[in-house]
Amino acid sequence: MRYSRAIKESVLKKVLPPEKRSIREVALEYGINDQTIRNWIEQVNNGILNLDAELGPAALGNREKFQLVLEAAGVPEEQLGGWIREKGLHSEHLQLWQQELRETVTEKDTQHKQELKDAKKKYSSSKKN
């Protein structure tokens, strides 16, 4: 399974100094295999994975945005500001991404309904012949 850069960074920030939490603890929290995290740490140590390269929210893909929106939904309201800062985001990012996700779902639903309608027409016309 491929993990987004945002997830990798979030995990690595927890297992590397200054937090330096146990790999096992973070692996259980995120549902990621211990060895995967160890591989990421090795990539950081070998310069393959650069945590200092700040890509920002604009570089995130739809999966990463979706993951962050879901994660934010689970954060208690009084802790949300800190969580947003920790991720390097603004509350506007989450609002925008939620809207984008709603629009995508609506668009897909409309597209699916049209495809179903077209399939029914095709089936009806083939039955008549």
Structural overview:
The protein is mainly α. It contains 6 helices and no strands.
Per-chain topology:
Blueprint: H1 5-15, H2 23-30, H3 34-45, H4 62-73, H5 77-86, H6 91-128
Helix pairs in contact: 4-6
What are the defining features of this structure?
0% strand, elongated, mainly alpha, 129 residues, 6 helices, single chain
Major pleated sheet: none
Give the overall form: elongated
SS elements, strand count: 0
Distance between the termini: 48 Å
Determine the fraction of residues in helical runs and give it as a percent range: over 70%
Number of helices: 6
What amount of the residues lies in strands? under 5%
Compute the CA-based radius of gyration: 21 Å
What is the N-to-C succession of helices and strands? Answer: HHHHHH
| Poorly predicted segments | none
Average predicted local confidence, pLDDT: 85
Class per helix and strand makeup = mainly alpha
